[in-house]
């Protein structure tokens, strides 16, 4: 008798093995997998790279994006700003050439195209965006524009003379 219900994938006699190398999908069987598949026929490999992991943090100096792209070269990645303030990071990892004599036992590395888009705030300097790729991590820095301080105009405060002039 299993302690874990069979809707957890039915693997290993209905028991979820956390040390198994199999990928467990908690939503398997609930019809949600189709909702996250890419529109190109449900290619699982393309779905994996389409979800490139990105961190976006804001510092006092600007916005910093870090993207994990292991195995990609800088020539395979594009960083663009379109429509004024939309940052787009895209690229493609190509599948390795297969030989007819090859016998694959497991294919987990993803391949395919990816594109991620982010609407940037208005206070950025788009002409100074810079990107760097090192050790499979793409870093994009979008500097902030200097905040315009409100112009303050001092007004002299008159004594009772202004009121007397109005009364006359």
From TrEMBL:
Species assigned in the record: Eucalyptus grandis
Q: Which domain of life is it from?
A: Eukaryota
Alphabetized CDD domains for the sequence? ACD_ScHsp26_like (cd06472)
Query: Which is a Pfam family this sequence falls into?
Result: HSP20
Q: Where does the SHSP domain lie?
A: 45-160
Do you know which Gene3D superfamilies this protein is assigned to? 2.60.40.790
Q: Where in the cell is it found?
A: Cytoplasm
An example Gene Ontology cellular component term from the record? Answer: cytoplasm
Q: Does the keyword Cytoplasm apply?
A: yes
The record's listing under InterPro entries reads: A-crystallin/Hsp20_dom (IPR002068), HSP20-like_chaperone (IPR008978), Small_HSP (IPR031107)
GO terms classed as biological process:
protein complex oligomerization; protein folding; response to heat; response to hydrogen peroxide; response to salt stress
Q: Which GO terms describe its molecular function?
A: unfolded protein binding
Q: Which family does it belong to?
A: Belongs to the small heat shock protein (HSP20) family.
Question: Is Nucleus there in the keyword field?
Answer: no
Q: What is this protein called?
A: SHSP domain-containing protein
Q: What keywords are assigned to this protein?
A: Cytoplasm, Stress response
């Amino acid at each position: 008798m299993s302690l874990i219900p069979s809707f957890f994938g039915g693997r290993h006699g209905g028991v979820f093995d956390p040390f198994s190398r199999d990928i467990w999908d908690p939503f398997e069987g609930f019809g949600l997998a189709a909702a996250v598949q890419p529109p190109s026929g449900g290619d699982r490999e393309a779905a994996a790279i389409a979800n490139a992991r990105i961190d976006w943090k804001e510092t006092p100096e600007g916005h910093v994006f870090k993207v994990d792209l292991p195995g990609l070269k800088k020539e395979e990645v594009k960083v663009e700003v379109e429509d004024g303030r939309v940052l787009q990071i895209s690229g493609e990892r190509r599948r390795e050439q297969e030989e007819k004599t090859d016998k694959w036992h497991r294919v987990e590395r993803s391949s395919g195209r990816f594109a991620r888009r982010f609407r940037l705030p208005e206070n950025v300097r788009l002409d100074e965006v810079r990107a760097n790729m090192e050790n499979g991590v793409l870093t994009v820095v979008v500097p902030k524009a200097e905040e315009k301080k409100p112009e303050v105009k001092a007004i002299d405060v008159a004594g009772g003379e202004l009121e007397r002039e109005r009364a006359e």
